[in-house]
Amino acid sequence: MADKKFELTDLASGKKSLLPVKSGTIGPDVLDIAAINKDHGVFTHDPGFGVTSATESKITYIDGDAGVLEYRGYPIEQLAEKSSFMEVCYLLLNGDLPKKAELEKFNDDIRHHTMINETLLRFYNGFHHNAHPMAMVSAVIASMSAFYHDSMDIHNPRHREIFAHRIIAKIPTIAAAAHKHSLGQPFVYPRNDLGYCANMLNMFFAVPCEPYHVDPVAAEALDLLFILHADHEQNASTSTVRLAGSTGANPYAAISAGVAALWGPAHGGANEAVLAMLEQIGTVENVPKYLAMAKDKSSHFRLMGFGHRVYKNFDPRAKIIRAACHKVLERLGSTNNPLFELALKLEEIALKDSYFVERKLYPNVDFYSGIIYSALGIPRSMFTVMFAIARTVGWVAHWQEMISDPAMRIGRPRQLYTGAGKRDYVELGKR
Ligand code: CMC
User: Fold this and answer.
1) CA of 394 relative to ligand 1 center, distance in Å
2) Predicted structure pTM score
C-alpha cells in the first residue's frame, strides 16, 4: 500500500508540503507534523491537547464515540468479568496475559515488596493529623527515591522491573499508613498471606487489639474497581508521568508527579467531589436546582462525575461500576443506600436534559465508584488515593514503554507568545 500523505498549503505564499500520515492498529490516523516548522516556519497550536497525539503506545485503546476501552487489546468488560487486578497488572506491564506459572511468580514478586522502609514510616509523624492523604501519598512516594537508589538506573531493564514491583507492592502500604495517621491509629504491617486487595483492606481496617477478618466480598469489589482504573492511555496524570520521566528524572519522582496531577477535581479528584456533591444535593427534589447551576456558565458548579474529554458516549467503566453497585450493596447487606438512589435519579434526569444530551455528557468512571468505596468503609478523602493505587500500574507501564524506546526525547511543548514586545529596562526611580 502506498504511503499516505496529507497536503498542507500555505495560502499566503502558495508553498505546499506533504505530511506523512501514520496509521495505528485501529483508531484515527495521525499527521506527522515534525517538518512543518522547517517547511513553513509555524508551530501547531492545540491548548488542552484535544487533537494531539503525543506518542505511539501499545498499551491501551479507547474509542470515545463507541464507548470502547481495551487493555492490550482485551475489552474492559471481559477483563472485569474474568480477570483479576494482579493479572491485569501483568498484562499492562508485559503485553500479554500471564500463564499460570508467570502469574504465580508475579504475585510472589509483588508480595515480597509490600513493606516500606521503617524510616519512611516516620515521615507520617511530620504531617498534620488532618493532612489530605493525597498530600501524604505523593510526598512519601517522592521520598522513596531517597531509599531505593540501589535500583534506580533507568537504563537498566532489571532495575526498571524492580522499581515496578516495588511501587505496585508498596503503594497500598503507603496509602494505609496515611489512613492510619489520619485516624491516629497504629500502623498495620502488610500480610503476605493475603491477596493484594485483602491485604490493603487489612492494613486499612485491622487494629492490634482485636482480630480482623477481611470480607471476601469487599476484597472482590475492590479488585474490580482496581481493574477498571488500572490504565486509561494518555490521560493528564499519565502524560504528567511521561513528561516528568522524559527528563530522565527518577521514576519515583515521576510517579509522585502523576499522583499530584490525579488529585485535581477534573481528573481523579472527581470521585471525592461526586460524593460531596450528592450530599450537597441531598434529595431528588433538589436535582433540578443543581442541574440549572451546572448549566449556568457564571457558576463554578459542574456536575461532578459527568463528562469526559474522550468519551462522547457512556464511559464503559461507569456502566460496569453502576451494575456492580447493585450487586455489591446487596452482598454487603446495604441495599438501602440513599446516595446511590440519588445518583441513579440524577443520571436519569441529566440524560434527558438537552444541555447534557447535546454536549454528550455521560456519567464517567468517578460517578459511581465512591458509592462502592463508601460501602466498604473507605472514607471520602481516601477515594482519590484508591484511584492512585490502581492507576500506578498504568503509570509504570507507560513510563517503561517510554524509557525503553530508543527514540525517546525530552517532552518539550512550544507556545504562542502573546506577551509584551521587546522593551528597554526602566530604572526603579523612573517608573
Ligand atoms: N457539568 C456541566 N457542564 C459540563 C460538564 C459537567 N460535568 N462537563 C463538561 N461540560 C460542558 C462545558 O461547560 C462545555 O460547555 P460549552 O460547550 O457550552 O462551553 C462542554 O460541556 C464541553 O466541556 P469541556 O470543559 O470543554 O470538556 P473537556 O473535555 O475540556 O473536560 C472534563 C472534560 C472531564 C474535565 C469535564 O467534563 C468535567 O469537568 N467534568 C466534571 C469533572 C469530572 O467528572 N472529572 C472526571 C473525569 S473522568 C476520570 C478521570 O479522568 O479521572
Assistant:
1) 23
2) 0.96
